[in-house]
Write a structure and sequence with these properties.
With 294 residues, this protein is α/β, with parallel strands linked by helices. It is built from twelve helices and seven strands. It starts with a strand and ends with a helix.
Amino acid sequence: MKKTLKIAVANIKGGVGKTTAALNIGLAFASLWFNVRFIDLDQQCDLTDFLLGDTQIPTTTLYTSLLSNKYPTVIHNNRENVSFIPGSHRMEEAIQELMIKQGRTMEEYNMGKIDKPFSAIYHVVNILDNISSNDECEIEILDCPPSAGVMVLAGLIHSDFLIIPTQATDFSARQTRNFIKNYVPAIQRINPNFKVMGILINMKRNEISQIKIANKLREEFGELVFNNEITYNASVNSAYHQKMSIFEYQDILPTKNLPDVALYKYLVDEIIDRANLTETAMSKILDFAKSNRQ
């Protein structure tokens, strides 16, 4: 069984286009014949809403898995090579129950009644690890909530790589620095294989202030910042609200030259390179070409 490459898309700052970036990156991989699975860890459930369509939410979701240890239902999207595990608006309720259990078992541990206290974070990590070990998914994209809570920390511990979308604004850049300097080292102490794949400058406007902030991030973090930026464009929002990737949206337009499509293609090429997937991607392209000739 091939190892699933797990990529968390996260920032403790909200409003940075995290879910839109996660969807377009994941669906771009699916278009390259990678088997992609999305996992929605955010109780806002924007990713779930996008992918669900007319499908009913199954009875066993990530929320019920947190409380019952049952394997969550994997939904196969109508898009080829795409599946997902839906989130729940009740996720925070489950986390609160887990934290209560953690507090109770800590008391029992301190009293010598049990050998090991329950950990809410590792409970979530174990569920995510079990999901990844149960099928032939090649790329797993985790959409994390904009916080530093249990779901985010568990998602990062579980993952191989982190993509951090950020806007080129003072507050967003400051939160990104905070995330990298204060949270990433703690995750790496637990999971030494965890790496920041890159900082994605997202929704960038052609304004002097934003250009300066983007340049400052590049000066500070160097090659950690993706070379390719996603600029602010109405077509990305239009595509998202119609529950389409930017690639699918371009296909329904009379003109087939949306600049956002090229930007995301370049970004995914860079992700493939940083994740050492170039050989795998080329192999898939050759296999597809051979199957078309037969």
